[in-house]
Specification:
This protein is mainly α and 72 residues long. The chain has one domain (11-71). It has two helices and no strands. The longest helix has 32 residues, at 2-33. It is rod-shaped and about 55 Å long. The N and C termini lie close together (12 Å). The relative contact order is 0.18. The model has no long low-confidence stretch (mean pLDDT 93).
């Protein structure tokens, strides 16, 4: 069972870290586009991408990583 926990911890830890990195990059891109004249739609889509990244990262950490950490 420890091997499965380690595999899940590494896999979902990587997913969580990549999603959080993607959210930060999307947020930075949304801020950069916000200064453009007709960048409203682009900013909206980059902000939605940032929100999706935060949701994936948070759900992965809350439902998979936290129980594994608390079980040890």
């Amino acid at each position: 069972m420890k091997n499965l926990d380690l595999i899940l911890f590494v896999g979902f830890g990587l997913i969580s870290a990549l999603a959080l990195t993607g959210a930060v990059l999307c947020f930075r891109k949304a801020l950069a586009v916000s200064g453009e004249r007709d960048g409203d739609l682009k900013m909206f889509f980059w902000a939605c991408g940032s929100l999706v990244g935060l949701i994936v990262s948070g759900m992965s950490a809350a439902y998979i990583l936290l129980p594994i950490i608390l079980h040890r």
